[in-house]
Write a structure and sequence with these properties.
alpha+beta; two-stranded antiparallel ribbon; 1 helix
Length: 69
Amino acid sequence: MLREIPAYAAERIMKAEVELRTCAAKGERTTLRDVQRNGYRERDRDTRAGRIKLEIPKLRKCSYLPSFF
């Protein structure tokens, strides 16, 4: 349970940051979109609660690194 909380928070932060960068939510079609998603990179992150596995979104035209790294 303690590992799920940081993983959930990290997932929500990454989702919000990628939506801002792509100008659209996942699966949403819009004329403002300038960058598309291109899968995920799996990374392990050590926290006080233990090691959590993160799926970091990949983008096609630019790079993305979460703000908490």
